[in-house]
Amino acid sequence: MTIASETRAPPTWSISRAGSSPVQRRRREAAADLADALATRIAGEVRFDPASRALYATDLSIYRQVPIGVVIPKDVADVEATVALCRERDVPILGRGCGTSLSGQTCNVAVVIDFSKYMNRILAIDPDSRRTRVQPGVINDEIRKAAHKHGLTYAPDPATHAYCTLGGNIGNNSCGAHTVMGGKTVDNVEELDILTYDGLRLRVGATNDDALELIKNAGGRRAEIYSRLKELADRYADEIRRRYPKIPRRVSGYNLDDLLPEKGFHVARALVGSEGTCALTLSATLRLLPWPPKRSLLVLGYPDITSAADDAAEFRVLGPDAIEAFDGHVVDNMKRKGKPLRGKPLLPEGHAWLLIEFSGEEQKEANDKAEKAFARLKRIGTHASGMRLVEPEGEQRLVWEIREDGVGASVIPGIEEAWPSWEDAAVPPERLGDYLRDFHKLNERFGYTATLFGHFGDGCVHARMTFGLKTKEGVARFRQYMYDATDLCLKYGGSLSGEHADGQAKGELLLKMFGPELIQAFREFKTIWDPHWRMNPGKVIDAHPLDANLRLGPDYAPRHVKTHFRYPDDHGSFAQAAERCFGVGKCRTPGDSGQIMCPSFQATREEMHSTRGRAHLLFEMMRGDSLKKS
User: Rounded CA gap, 180 and 600, in Å?
Assistant: First the structure.
C-alpha cells in the first residue's frame, strides 16, 4: 500500500497471529523474504522468530503490539541497509533503545531496530567546548559519569537514568530531576546525525539564514526538507506562539516552536520528542553543564502531597538543582512489595516529601543555600511538618532511591494494579497545588486511586492509576477519564505530557490541546520527513485510539496451567505471576553500577536474558497467540 504524501493512514502490516487466509500467508512469506534479505546484507543480528518478536511486543506502558521482526545493528551501515530493505518492501520501522517508554511508542507492528546492544558508545567528549557526541544506544548514566570526570554533567536524568538510552531520551524529549537546573533533552541537543526512511543521511542543528540559503541552493532532498520546514514554520508561526503553553515541561506535540526564528530554526531540536516518527537518530551532539562537586539535600515532610506542591514553586527562584516529590503511597507500596527502604529513617515526619537539592564548590556553600531556602520558606509560610538537611553523599543517595523507585512501586498484582497513561501531565509550577486538589476530586469521581511522585519544581506529576483495564466497563471508564483529565490539565494551562511523550496514550487527545490548525501542522511536519508514514506509524499524530492494543484488555484470556507451586499471592495463577513485571527495565542496569540483578544480561546484553525479558516471554507463553507458529 502506497500512501499519498499529504495523507495520514498508517500501514496495516500485521503478522502477529497465525492464520491460513491468503493475506496472512502473503504477510508471513513477505516477512520471511525480508528476514532472509537482511541476514545476507548486515553484520548484525536478524531475529524474526516468534520468541524474539514476543520480547519486543510491549514496553513500559499498557500497550502491546507484536513486531514483524527485530534487527540488532552493529553499525550505521547495518542501519542503512535495514532501512533500505524495509523501504523496498514498504515495511514500517521503529527505533528502540531500552524499551522503557510509558505511552506505547516503543512497541509497534514494524521492524524494530534495537540500538542498545552494539551502538552504545560515547564517540567523543570535549570538556573545553562542553560537548559530547554519542551513539543512540548509550546509557544515560554512562554519559553523566564520563562528564563528571571533567566537572560537567548531562542535565536530563529520568528516574531510569541507570539503564535508559540516549536515543530513547531524544525520542521522548526526556527530562528528569535536574531539568530545573539544565532543561529538557531538547534544550541539550546541539546536533543530530539522522537517517530518513527514504535513505537520506544528514546532520541537522541550528540553521542561520546564510546556511539555509546554501542548503536550498544546493538542491536535492535536503533542500526540499529545509525549504518545506521553513515554509511550515512561517505559515504556522502565530498559531505556534499562541497555542504552545509557556511552562517548563511542555513535551506534548512536535517541537515546531524550535523552527521559529527566535529559536534559531533549530532542526535537530524540532526532531527531539518526535518518538521515531520522522527519522532515526544515528548519533547526537549534546551540551554539557558545570557540575559542582558538593551537594546538599533539603528534605521536607508534609501532611499531604498537595501541601508539598504548594511550596515547590517557591524554591525555583533560589537556584536549586532539583525539586522533587513523592507521596506516602510510594513508601507504603515498597513495604508491601518487601523492597528495602534504607532511606526511610532519613525522611522527616510526614505523609509526603519534597526533596530540594543544592550544590556548591564546597559543602558549606551547598548547606548554606539549603538553610537559606528553608528560612525563606518559613518567613512566607509553609505547611511542612518536618525538615532534615541530608549532607553525606551516601545518605542522599538512599533518599533519592526512594523517589526513583516510585516508577516500579505502583503495580502489585493481586493487590493493587496501577498503570501509566495519564502519566506525566505538567502545569505551571505555581498552580500545581490547586491542580492536584482538583485532580484528587476527579479520581474520587471515577473511583481511582493514584500513586503520585514527580518533578514538582517544574509542575510535572507522575501518576500511576488503578484503571482496571481487564473489562469492557473498565476500559470505557478509562477512556472517559483520559478525556476529563485532559480538560482539567488544559484548564490549568498545562501540557498532557511533561516528560514521557504522547505515543498512543495521548496521541488522540492532542487535538484538544493544540487545536485543528496545529494538528494539521503536525501532519505536515511528519510528512516532510516521512512522506509515506512508515516511521513508527500510529504514534503521536493520528495515533491509534488510546484504548486499542491493550496489553491486558477485555480480550486478555491467559492459559490456566497446573503448577507445582501454588502462587498464593497471585490467586494461584501462574499467568498472573507473569504479569508482575510490567517493563521497568531496572534489571538492565549495567554491572558497574553496583546493582547487578541479572548477570546473564550483563554478559550477553540480550533482552531475553534479562529478568524482564524472561518475564515477558512467560507472559506471552501464557497468552499464547504471538508464539504460535507463523
Answer: 37
What burial letters (b/e) apply to 481-496, b meaning 16+ CB within 10 Å?
Answer: bbeebbebbbebebbb
Given a cut of 70, is residue 88 above it in pLDDT?
yes
How far is 462 from 465, CA to CA, in rounded Å?
A: 10
Backbone φ, ψ for residue 302 (5° rounding): -135, 155
Extract the C-alpha cell encoding 276.
521515531
C-alpha cell at 347: 525522611
Residues 608 and 324: their CA atoms lie apart, in Å, by: 34
In the Cβ-directed half-sphere of 56, how many Cα atoms lie within 13 Å? 30
Domains contained in the chain, CATH given: 122-290 (3.30.465.10), 294-467 (3.30.70.2190), 568-627 (no CATH)
To the nearest 10°, report the CA torsion of 95, 99, 104, 105: -20
**Which of 117, 108, 33 lies closest to 544 in space, CA to CA?**
108
Q: Are strands 69-72 and 111-114 parallel, antiparallel or unpaired?
A: parallel
Cell 499498557, residue? 62
pLDDT at position 381:
80
- Is residue 8 helix, strand or coil? coil
Q: What DSSP element (H or E) covers 229? A: helix 220-243
CA–CA distance, 520 with 243 (Å, rounded to integer): 14
Burial class (CB in 10 A: 0-12, 13-18, 19+), 291: buried
C-beta neighbour count of 216 within 10 angstroms: 14
Residue whose C-alpha cell is 508561526: 237
Tell me the three cell numbers of residue 391: 549532607
Three cell numbers written together for 136: 543512540
Q: Which residues of 326-351 are buried (b: 16+ CB within 10 A; e: fewer)?
A: bbbbbbebbeeeeeeeebeebbeebb
Phi, psi of 343 (to 5 degrees): -90, -5
The partner residues of 326 in beta bridges, in order of sequence, read 353, 453
SS3 letters across 433-473:
HHHHHHHHHHHHHHCCCEEEEEEHHHCEEEEEECCCCCCHH
Helix (H) or strand (E) holding 282: strand 280-287
Give the total residue count for the chain.
Answer: 630
Residue 426 contacts by C-beta under 8 Å, 6 or more apart in sequence?
247, 248, 249, 250, 251, 458, 459, 460, 461, 494, 495, 497, 498, 499
Other CB atoms within 10 Å distance of the CB of residue 42: 21
**Cβ atoms within 10 Å, residue 561:** 10
DSSP 149-175: TTTEE-----TTTTT-BHHHHHHHT--
Short-list 166, 33, 16, 48, CA closest to 112: 48
3-class state of residue 195 by DSSP: strand
| pLDDT tens digit sequence for 300-340 | 999 999 999 999 998 988 899 999 999 998 888 777 777 77
Is residue 208 within 8 Å of 267, Cβ to Cβ? no
Per-residue b or e along 604-624, where b marks 16 or more CB atoms closer than 10 Å to that residue's CB: ebebbbbbbbbbbbbbbbbbe
pTM tops 0.70, yes or no: yes
Q: Average of pLDDT values for 568-580?
A: 79
Which has the closest alpha carbon to 84: 528, 534, 488, 431? 534
pLDDT band with cut points at 50, 70 and 90 for residue 597: low
Beta strands in 456-546 (DSSP E): 460-465
